[in-house]
Write a structure and sequence with these properties.
The complex is a heterodimer of chains A (376) and B (102). Chain A is mainly α. Chain A has helices at 13-28, 32-45, 54-57, 66-105, 112-133, 142-163, 165-185, 192-224, 237-249, 252-255, 258-267, 275-280, 285-302, 315-320, 327-348, 365-375. With 102 residues, chain B is an alpha/beta fold. The longest helix of chain B is centred in the first third of the chain and has 12 residues, at 22-33. Classes of the chains: A mainly alpha (376), B alpha/beta (102).
Chain lengths: 376, 102
Amino acid sequence: MSEYTPKVTGTGAKAAVQRFGGFLAGMIMPNIGAFIAWGLITAIFIEVGWWPVAQLGGFDGHTGLVGPMITYLLPLLIGYTGGRMVHGTRGGVVGAIATVGVIVGAEGTPMFLGAMIIAPLTAWLLKKFDEAIEGRVASGFEMLIDNFSSGILGAAMAVGGFYSIGPVIRTLMQWAESGVGFLVDSRLLPLASIVVEPGKVLFLNNAINHGVFTPLGAAQSADQGKSILFMIETNPGPGLGILVAFMLFGPIALRASAPAAIVIHFLGGIHEIYFPYILMKPRLILAAILGGGMGVLTNVILGNGLVASPAPGSIFAYMAMTPRGDHLLVLLSILVAALVSFFVAAVLMGFGRGEKDDAAGELSDAELSAHTKESA
Amino acid sequence: MTTIDGSTVRKLVVACDAGMGSSAMLAGTLKKQLKKSGVEVVHSPVAEIPADADVVVTHKGLAERARGVAGDTPVVPFDLFLGDPAVAKVVKAIQDKAQIDV
């Protein structure tokens, strides 16, 4: 296989976009456990939740857990993680310090994006400082210099972030929110699937979801109790429809692996499992786009939203993050997406008849049967 | 062309974008297959492939990035997360302590 010929560098455009997206997503993804904890606490204890508790849910004059978690805990974790990615634990610490400045400087707006900017920047500055003084510190003064360089830089960036990035990001977030509001009201939001679905199968799934939708959605959810932005990239319907179509009408050698892939995708939430099926038959991206777009349209019409990001995009995570009372409506959006993508994929594969005429560039049946034999 | 010598592989890294989903799944499978061979199987984000890896497997959509990070360590790209022949070849080479070209 020619794919084994090594390319020397990782500098292609696709790799560069993946790398940047991966960096953004890398700040969010290790902290998804905290997002889920926040989502569960919100879904259960707020005033309209399953089991309202004022002291935990934060109503009737109580602070509650919900507000402090999204205002402080989550951005600080993101800031720490982002700083650590640039410059280890020292970077994480100054990243968290600087993040506080941004949080307080934009009161009322959850500062995920601000944290994702100022924390790596602060860590990078500390890294440059550490590199500049390397080997020049008098023996015995290392700890003093280390601690005070972190402390002074962190304090300066917290104050700077308070006056600069905090207010700027708050304005940007307000624009983004009204932009999303416009897309929802004018029912144009489904068009997002034209970009999102192809991006997904090129392994930009985490970058798109956690780099863009999770921060914006969390801000909207804190404001309105739920957000549709959590449901654009994560809907397991399109992947399910395509895998079922593969199971029934795909190349015969691939049909056998589809049921296991369905379980991993739909129940386990690992969407990556269906990307290769589309990459092998690239025209199936149309099925994903139409299925995804119809899923989004369903959610726009029904006014659906999730409390927090369902990560991974499993049906179980979806149900756990659905606000009380909306479960059937949310299931409907998954069903619509799955049916549309199944039907389109089935047509594109000629209901199993056209598979022998596949153009060059796609895997031949011989290669595919080699796959299944070795996997058996 | 790079040659992998199955008898010298001590640590196999499965890499994916986040290092949490598909790589964890495939690493779980390979761990079982390579248990008897005494090879350490770990999963990682493609940007943080550990320096002491002897061989890296990753989806071909991420192989370009993996090669940028892995340096001289051989990177084996694959198509399918379930039952890919390229992955099976690496597993077999390790089990048989044989050499393969990738």
